[in-house]
Amino acid sequence: DDESLIVDWESSTDPLNPRNWSTAKRLGAILQVTAIAVVVCSAGAIDAAVMPQAAEDLGVSEVVETLATGVFLVGFGTGGLIAAPFSELFGRNAVYLASLPVFSLWTMGAALAPNIGAQLVFRFLAAFSATAPLTCVGGTISDLYDSLDKTWVFPLFAIPGFGAPALGLVIGSYIGPNTSWRWTEWSMLIATGIVMALVFMCMPETFGPLLLQWK
């Protein structure tokens, strides 16, 4: 007869179980995924603050330039449909670490865009790839906290994440009059690089089945 080997947590207090990690370690993971959300959500709105400058530089009307924000939202919506299952197959960190560099590349493309067509394509692709880490956040929180604790932990992510578009507008309003509109994209690229380095160095894998597989 074939023998089956069942791998599970040693007990309800197994220190390898993410829900049994120290408070500091779990909150550190939450703060890192919150930083991801703040950066990518700020990027979605930051262009709206420099619309007149971008429209003039690219030789289009401000109405056409609003598409730079519109296609970002479309990219958010469509990317989520495809990216959602990946973290259940490959783990949370695989999605974070794969999507952030891709998001950075498309953001760089938007900063260097020579015309409106290129800008819109790169903005869409940036949003499409930025959706991937956002779809994992709920899973990461569930990995770390039970149903009761999630009620107070989730706002720690949601309030900064949902407030990030307003932050993007503030940053863009400051950058626009003082430099080129392209620096809104460069600033998001720099911020993404900082967050990406933090995640690469400090973010622990939280997906239970993958941790058990490693075990």
From TrEMBL:
<protein>
    <recommendedName>
        <fullName>Major facilitator superfamily (MFS) profile domain-containing protein</fullName>
    </recommendedName>
</protein>
<dbReference type="GO" id="GO:0005886">
    <property type="term" value="C:plasma membrane"/>
</dbReference>
<dbReference type="GO" id="GO:0022857">
    <property type="term" value="F:transmembrane transporter activity"/>
</dbReference>
<dbReference type="InterPro" id="IPR020846">
    <property type="entry name" value="MFS_dom"/>
</dbReference>
<feature type="transmembrane region" description="Helical">
    <location>
        <begin position="153"/>
        <end position="176"/>
    </location>
</feature>
<keyword id="KW-0812">Transmembrane</keyword>
<dbReference type="InterPro" id="IPR036259">
    <property type="entry name" value="MFS_trans_sf"/>
</dbReference>
<dbReference type="Pfam" id="PF07690">
    <property type="entry name" value="MFS_1"/>
</dbReference>
<feature type="domain" description="Major facilitator superfamily (MFS) profile">
    <location>
        <begin position="21"/>
        <end position="215"/>
    </location>
</feature>
<feature type="transmembrane region" description="Helical">
    <location>
        <begin position="66"/>
        <end position="87"/>
    </location>
</feature>
<keyword id="KW-1133">Transmembrane helix</keyword>
<feature type="transmembrane region" description="Helical">
    <location>
        <begin position="120"/>
        <end position="141"/>
    </location>
</feature>
<feature type="transmembrane region" description="Helical">
    <location>
        <begin position="94"/>
        <end position="114"/>
    </location>
</feature>
<feature type="transmembrane region" description="Helical">
    <location>
        <begin position="27"/>
        <end position="46"/>
    </location>
</feature>
<dbReference type="InterPro" id="IPR011701">
    <property type="entry name" value="MFS"/>
</dbReference>
<feature type="transmembrane region" description="Helical">
    <location>
        <begin position="188"/>
        <end position="212"/>
    </location>
</feature>
<keyword id="KW-0472">Membrane</keyword>
